[in-house]
Structures are given as C-alpha cells and as structure tokens.
Amino acid sequence: MTRTPGRPHLVARALLLTLGLLVLIWCGGLAAFAFSIPTEPTDRTSRADGIVVLTGGSERIEEGLRLLRSGLGRKLLVSGVAEGLTLEDVLGAAEAGAEEVACCVELGHTAENTAGNASEAARWMTQQGFKSLWLVTGSYHMPRSLLEFRRAMPEARVIANPVFPGHVKVEQWWRFRGTARLIASEYAKYLGASLKALLPNSPTPSKAS
C-alpha cells in the first residue's frame, strides 16, 4: 500500500523546492552580473566637465591623472580619501610628475562607501557647476558605482572609465577563487543597492562597503 506523505513532509518538500529555485535564480543573476562587468574600455575620447576617482588602487588615480592631462576633464576629485592624507601623499603614491596637475586635483574625505562617494561627488559637481563627469573605478566595481552615481545625480552625464586590476581575473572569474569571491560579494552589494534605489528617500549607509 502506497503511503501518502504527511503535511510536514509536503511543507518540507515545498520549502526545499523554493530554496532550490531561489539558489538557481541567484546563481543565474550572479552569472549575468559577472558577464556584464566590462573587460575593456568603451570610450576613450569623450570630454566631460569633471573626473571622479574612487579610492581603492593607485592605478585608478593614475588613470584619472591621464584623463586630466589629456584634457578630457577640467578638474579631478579623488573621493573617499582617508583622513590625514594630503594631496602630496595621494599623488606621490600614484606616479612621479603628478605635481604638474596638482592645481586641478581635489581630495574628498567624507565618503566611507560607494553611496558616500556618489553623494560627495554630487556636492562637488554642484559646487563646480559641472554637468558631466568621468567615473574611474575598478571594472568589477563599476556596475554598482554607476547605479549609485546616477541615483545621486540623475541629471548628470556619467561616463564609465573602468580600470582593470591584474589580480582580478574577470574574463574567467569562475576559475579563480579570489575573483569569484570578490564578484559574488560585489553582486550581493549591487542587489542591496538596487533594492535601496527602489525605496523613496532611503538614507545613505554609514558603514564602509
């Protein structure tokens, strides 16, 4: 005689199926997110009013300085600089000869996370009367950064300028544990930022992310 599963078994099975479906959806979203990360620059010639570099690697500052020297932006903001660091400290860590453009570089010390970077940059853009900017950050960080910047300044034109750290193997991310962990973490933060963007007048988080 066939035994009919009891209600607890049916509930457990439904929960397992739901959990499995959610895991599949999350994995599919992760894969789509990973393949959306840029692997090469898409724009090298546009001009913008300002350049905003998010701290996180000397190659980002070097790229911002390259844009500035090339005349593709009039001023550069390095956002999220630790308290106590001076312009000489930041530019000296980037490359020799950076002092020649130091007159057009400013440091932002208030941002503690990506949303804070966007808010800091929005205030700077307003102060400068700028309407467009180059956004310089790591390629894996670019999707979330664009989301936060466009949320903070919806009327501004934001041009993505990703840099490509050598230790982040974006093109075959699933083969490298460190890169896979980094992208999974960034995807989770991107989902959080996306949900936050749906909430009206949501506060900026205070902890670093």
What's a quick, concise take on this entry?
The protein is α/β, with parallel strands linked by helices and 209 residues long. The chain is built from six helices and five strands; from the N terminus they run H-E-H-E-H-E-H-E-H-E-H.
Describe this structure in words.
The chain has 209 residues and is an alpha/beta fold. It has one domain (50-197): Rossmann fold (3-Layer(aba) Sandwich). It has helices at residues 7-36, 58-69, 87-94, 114-128, 142-152, 177-197, and strands at 50-54, 75-79, 105-108, 132-138, 157-163. Strands 3-2-1-4-5 form a 5-stranded parallel β-sheet, sandwiched between helices. Helix 5 (142-152) links the parallel strand 4 (132-138) and strand 5. Helix 4 packs across helix 5 (142-152) and helix 5 runs parallel beside helix 6. Residues 204-209 have low confidence and may be disordered.
List the helices and strands and how they pair.
Blueprint: H1 7-36, E1 50-54, H2 58-69, E2 75-79, H3 87-94, E3 105-108, H4 114-128, E4 132-138, H5 142-152, E5 157-163, H6 177-197
Parallel strand pairs: 1-2, 1-4, 2-3, 4-5
Helix pairs in contact: 2-3, 4-5, 5-6
